[in-house]
Amino acid sequence: MPTLNNRNFTGLGGINLRESNGAVRFETPLITPTTTSGERLLYVNSSNELVYNNGSSAVVVGASAGGGTPSWETMFASDATFTMTPDNTFTIAGNRATATDVVTMTNIAGGSGAILQFTNSTDTNKDIDGTASAWSVLGTGVASFAGLTFTGANTITSTVGDITWTLEDNDATALAIGSSGATSIMTFVTTNAAESVNFGNAMQVTDGIATFISTSNTVSNVLVTNNTITTFGASASSAGAVCIRSTSLTTGALLQLQLSDTNNAGGFYLSCRESVGGTNDFTVGENGVVVALGTAASNSFTLSNGDVLMSDGSITLTDADDAASFSLTNNTATTASVVAIAGSGVHTGTTTTSFMTITPSGMTSGTALYIPVAGMTSGTGISVVAATATFTTGGKLLNLDSTAAVAGNLISAVTTGAYTGTGMLIMSAGAMTTGIMISLTSTTGLTSGSLLRLTSSTAGAIATNGAVSIRATGAFTSTSNVGYVDVLASATTAGTVMRVASSAAGQTATELLRVVASGFTTGYTGNVAYFESSSTTGAANVVAISSANSTAGNALSVTANSLTTGVGVLVTSSGTITSAGEGLVNIVGTGITTGDALKIDLTEATLTTGHYINCYDDTGASSVFSVGENGVVLFSDFTEVVTAVNTITAAESGSVFFLNSATEFVSTLPAVQAGLHFTFIVTAAPSGASYTVVTAASSNVMLGTVHSSDGVDGDSELTGGDTLSFVDGAAVVGDRAEFWCDGTNWFGIAHCNVSTGITYTTAT
Fold first, then answer.
1. Is residue 717 classed exposed, middle or buried when 0-12, 13-18 and 19+ CB atoms within 10 A define those classes?
2. Same domain assignment for residues 31 and 122
3. 206 — pLDDT class (breaks 50, 70, 90)
4. Considering the domain boundaries, does residue 165 fall inside one?
5. Which CA distances in Å does 585 have to 355, 359, 576, 612?
6. What is the mean pLDDT of the segment spanning 305-313?
7. In this predicted structure, what is the pLDDT of residue 417?
8. Domain identity same for 750 and 649
9. For the chain, what percent of residues have pLDDT higher than 70?
10. Most exposed among 49, 197, 416, 567, judged by the fewest C-beta atoms under 10 Å?
11. Structural domain containing residue 137
């Protein structure tokens, strides 16, 4: 056995094993041994350090100079990462009996990095947990402490976002801010019964806004109480219990109160009342409505100078004494109006809503309006002037109404002198064209009275003008079919408004009424005779012609020999006829045997493009139905190019629908109704899906057959289906289907190029 220094070792080539106690001696290698993956080496390096190599990395096991415990620096140099296996805890337990620190970390180089960095896998977990979890710091940076103590001039600063402070103490003095000699300048009270912030002296906000936000509906948001003030604020220089002051205000508002007029329903911007409650003395409500209680027999509102302007409002006076409720005196006015009442709006009120209303409803024998003009010579007592506005029918410059059966006079014009003027009553309309100068109207009950009675006791000879004279000296015209003499009985029910009668038995050629208009030249568009009746639901006749006793004559004869582009008889109506069997023109001949109910005579030899009968759609100029030369009957169907979902109505009966779309769609038939007829023609072959024609509400009322050009029998439906399909990939341009309805079923006949192009199916 080899020996070294008088000690026995096992020679293994650079390693000696002490025989007596098993010590291993390592020679210092000349070179660092090399390793391969999977090898495990233990050796001493050139720095006299014991190294363990696992085949991929080396770790210093012992320190230099003797093999003692390696230094932290040596271990950190070899491995800067300390990794703990799961569920293990790294603990530093200090055993200090004195006030020395257990762990001290110092950055001696003064770098900008952190002395201690925490990186938690979950932000909501704690980065630091204090003694017994009394304090902690979360990964999100939220810290929880039992208390904070600041010494010296320290500042709390938030560099990112806002800080939310929550103070839960439930104490009468949860937080106090003070100074030397004044320890309670501001205190925060957080008791459940009385949360508040109290100021020991004044509160001042400089260059900021004091905002008070409350969610209570039972207490005031801001309460100012002063039960000591008496005379403070009585003088102009006093501030008052509450003072809002500005010496620089120009166009701003010294006090602004804001509410939502939309939500405000009876609330107030300002309410003034006695301190213990009761009714309001003064309020400013929604839209600035001011209500003041006032004091009886005293001035509640006094304006020494200036004017009162109301842009939109009204004044209502309610008085309970026998004194004048409104008194106005102006002894200075000469040409100006003492009272001016004006309005530029289109006023339409009547009676109690008139532009000016005087209502002495309890008056019996008094005078409603008294205007003494004792000194007037050439002036006017009352002047009512209609200016440049068009005075329409129904307008009145003066209106006198009486609802009682009276014997008095509504108008009395009396002069005690020998009148020699041009008329005690003068009405002049120098520019009048279509109006009515005098209108006399009587309601029900007239028997022996007169609407107009002219009485003269003169015994003289009436010469030029007559007792009643109606003259038109100018080129008279009329509009709205009103003549120079107009007779109107708007309330007549069964009487005759105007009667012209002749009862002589020997009459042969007598004319009871002749209306002659002569002198027509070019451009006449008027009516020689015009009859008009108001709308009624009764079986009334606007014009009734009876020839019951005439056998060979004509009840109505219309001759228009000069007619070229006009109409011999024109019947026009915008009304809706809803009664079955009724029409705009009815011809009823219950006694006709061999005659004609309607006879139309034309000269067939000269009839070329004309028609016996021609029916037009009033929405267009095209003929829908006509009977022309030699009795040829023509009618026109409606066509529609369809590119999307189409819900068909009964009014479209007779239509031809051309199916033309890159995206196929459904056409829905209307509900069954006898006589309905529709045609469907493919103008763009279906691609991707089929064109379908379905019944309303998927009713199985579709019957029919399919005929194809390829000679193969096509599809058919004999029991009732609800869908016809122009099949995708089989139907081609020109395939068609027609449907007729008998009121119960739809009967279809289809034509296609190949037998599979059109099919009937039942979906439900």
1. buried
2. no
3. confident
4. no
5. 50, 56, 13, 17
6. 75
7. 65
8. yes
9. 73
10. 416
11. 114-142
Residues 125 and 65 occupy one common structural domain: no
Q: What is the pLDDT of residue 65?
A: 46
Strands of 303-345, DSSP E? none
Does residue 57 share a domain with residue 134? no
Half-sphere exposure of residue 405, counting CA atoms within 13 Å on the CB side? Answer: 4
Task: Give a yes or no: residue 47 inside a domain.
Answer: yes
Strand order across the 24-26 sheet: 3-4, 7-11, 15-18, 24-26
* Predicted pLDDT at 6: 61
**Residue 687 and residue 742 share a domain:** yes
Same domain, 126 and 14: no
pLDDT tens digit sequence for 248-294: 898 888 888 888 877 888 788 888 887 776 778 888 887 778 888 77
Domain end residue (candidates: 142, 162, 184): 142
Is the pLDDT at 715 greater than 90, yes or no?
yes
**Dihedral of the CA atoms 542, 544, 545, 549 (nearest 10)?**
180
Q: Taking CA 336 as the corner, what is the angle to CA 332 and CA 341, rounded to the nearest 5 degrees? A: 120
Under a CB-based contact definition with an 8 Å cutoff, are residues 55 and 38 in contact? Answer: yes
At 89, list the tokens. 């805890």
CB 184 within 8 A of CB 178: yes
pLDDT of 18:
57
Segment 705-719 shows an average pLDDT of 93
CA-to-CA distance for 755 and 713, rounded, in angstroms?
6
Q: Would residue 753 be called left, alpha or beta, if left means φ above 0 and alpha means ψ between -120 and 50 degrees? A: alpha
Structural domain total, the chain? 3
Output the pLDDT for position 753.
96
Give the C-alpha separation, 759 to 715, whole Å: 5
Residues 63 and 118 grouped into a single domain: no
